[in-house]
Amino acid sequence: MDFLRVCLALVLMNCGLLMAFPSPYDHTVITCLDSDLRLRCDYGVIFVKSSRFGWRSTRTCGPARSPFEVDPDRCYPEISLVPKWCNGRAECVINKEMIARPHHCFYTHYITTHFCVPAKTIKVCEHDREILRCEHGRIKILAANYGRTDDTTCLRRRPYWRPLNTNCYSPNTLDLVSKRCEGRKHCSVFASNDVFSDPCVGTRKYLEITYTCRSHHHD
């Protein structure tokens, strides 16, 4: 079976059908609405291919809903929070309360499909510059944030009285870094309030980027 899977992967690669990443394996996770959504990669990091609400029958999430109960004009199948929250992480948990269900929609579960992709993560201290490089292929940005999410990175001496915000996010980071670096072989990034704005005044920040190198064959 493993031999057949490898052969299939080679055929798909030769046909150009593996569009984004070298791994041919999708992981599909079905999560009941009353449970937290959990994704994990034992190797590499998460890249969400799709995440949507489901209403067909499953063994664990209850009976199917009638198609007449799912109004396509008011029910939005894609869950945009999942890739924003999970991409670039080895493990991801989203509390069930964080995913808002559209009103008047009768769903039973979430269906999430993701890849586990090899990736690099860099952290650039505020006012510093770093270069993203791909010796083979071109840069694909998976996740990026300018701010602070821990109490150790890029910390030099700071006054004991100064508070440290470890829940600091700049929402435009991913878009700005992607526009600058996506599809290039190397790219210089500068961690600065002038570039990303200041999401937490008084806290020393850093730029964290997770990226992979996509094969030329898939450009």
Mind explaining what this structure looks like?
About 15% of the residues lie in helices and about 30% in strands. The protein is of the alpha+beta class. It folds into two domains: about 20-115, Jelly Rolls (Sandwich), CATH 2.60.120.740; about 120-219, Jelly Rolls, CATH 2.60.120. The chain is globular and about 55 Å long. It starts with a helix and ends in a 5-residue tail after the last strand. The model is unreliable at about 1-25 (pLDDT under 50).
Could you give the topology of this structure?
Elements: H1 2-14, E1 27-32, E2 37-40, E3 45-54, H2 81-86, E4 91-94, E5 109-117, E6 120-125, E7 129-133, E8 138-147, H3 173-181, E9 186-190, H4 193-196, E10 206-214
Antiparallel strand pairs: 1-5, 2-4, 3-5, 6-10, 7-9, 8-10
GO molecular function, one term: carbohydrate binding
Domain SUEL-type lectin: 124-214
Signal peptide: 1-20
Keywords:
10 strands; three-stranded antiparallel beta sheet; 4 helices; repeat; Jelly Rolls; 219 residues; 2 domains; alpha+beta; Lectin_gal-bd_dom; signal; disordered N terminus
